[in-house]
Amino acid sequence: MSHLITHSRCPRCANLGRDISKDNLGEYSDGHAYCYSCGYHKPGNLKSRIVSSDISETVTSGGLNFPEDYIKYIPREVYLWLNKYKLTHTEINQHKFGWSENRKLFVMPVYQGDELLMWQGRDFSGNPKAKKYLTHGPASDILHIIESPLQDNDERDIIVVTEGLLDAIKVGRVYNAMPLWGSHMPLKTIRRLAMRFKRLGIWLDSDKLVEAVKTALRASQFIETFVVHSERDPKEQDINWIQTYVRLGLRYPAAEKEAIDK
């Protein structure tokens, strides 16, 4: 399993006059590289992949290793939880969700091909002292974009960011979507998305409206930005409501807002 070593300038972005910050290209320990902005990929080599696989066995729990008992399996408890949000079997399989019985942890991995880039675990232990979500890997460096097959042609330039992966999967049925793995949106993420899309929607959970507006106002310096707000979280919405809320948000770009409603 390879791990991220450093960032450098992407040659494809450079040819297009982009990647001014010179950090779009992620370089990994097995020799492969991937641009988080344009998708440019440079393959690694077999020797480095074997060495990387050996090294990964010694990575601490803070690294990319899954829990030792991780399996690609969803127990009934988690399946019922996912079913509340009406995720399909296809979506569950597509995203390669898994489980750790010892840690009672639902695992949501992100891959690039066969390479594990990061993963986030959702705690199901019931322990009130346990963190609800555990994130491993460079989440802030990864644009995990879920491309929608259903959006209208005039909406293909839209990207909607959400807090969690399940939210992004649901929104991704209608619009291009991406999880932030939390509520914070780094400036470098805003810049990278601005190079790929023309309009950015910020749809955080219902209790994060003020933070969503602040993020949208900051992002509006680089890309046309709007806020999507609903009383229920994105993952709880069906397609019709997702489309309704996003189109409502499009009517009021962040640059036109004069105050933050508290």
Instruction: Supply the CATH class of the largest domain.
Output: Alpha Beta
**Helix/strand class:** alpha/beta
List the helices and strands in order.
EHEEEHHHEEEEEHEHEHEH
The helix count comes to 8
Point out poorly predicted stretches: 45-62, 258-262
CATH topology of the largest domain: Dna Topoisomerase Vi A Subunit, Chain: A, domain 2
**Strand order within the widest sheet?**
1-2-3-4
First-last Cα distance: 46 Å
Domain count: the total is: 3
Which of globular, elongated, flat, extended, rod-shaped describes the shape?
A: globular
The biggest beta sheet reads: 4 strands, antiparallel
CATH arch. level architecture of the largest domain: 3-Layer(aba) Sandwich
**What is the overall pLDDT average?**
83
Helix proportion range: 25-40%
Radius of gyration: 19 Å
Number of strands: 12
Fraction in beta strands: 15-25%
Describe the protein in words.
- The protein has about 260 residues and is an alpha/beta fold.
- It has 3 domains: about 5-55, N-terminal domain of TfIIb; about 75-135, DNA primase DNAg catalytic core, N-terminal domain (Alpha-Beta Complex); about 145-255, Dna Topoisomerase Vi A Subunit, Chain: A, domain 2 (3-Layer(aba) Sandwich), CATH 3.40.1360.
- Helices cover about 25% and strands about 20% of the residues.
- The chain has 8 helices and 12 strands.
- The chain has helices at about 10-15, 45-55, 75-85, 90-95, 165-170, 185-195, 210-220, 240-250, and strands spanning about 5-10, 25-30, 35, 40, 100, 105-110, 115-125, 135, 160, 175-180, 200-205, 225.
- The protein has a 4-stranded antiparallel β-sheet, with no helix packed on it. Strands 5-6-7-8 form a 4-stranded antiparallel β-sheet, with no helix packed on it. The chain has a 4-stranded parallel β-sheet with strand order 10-9-11-12.
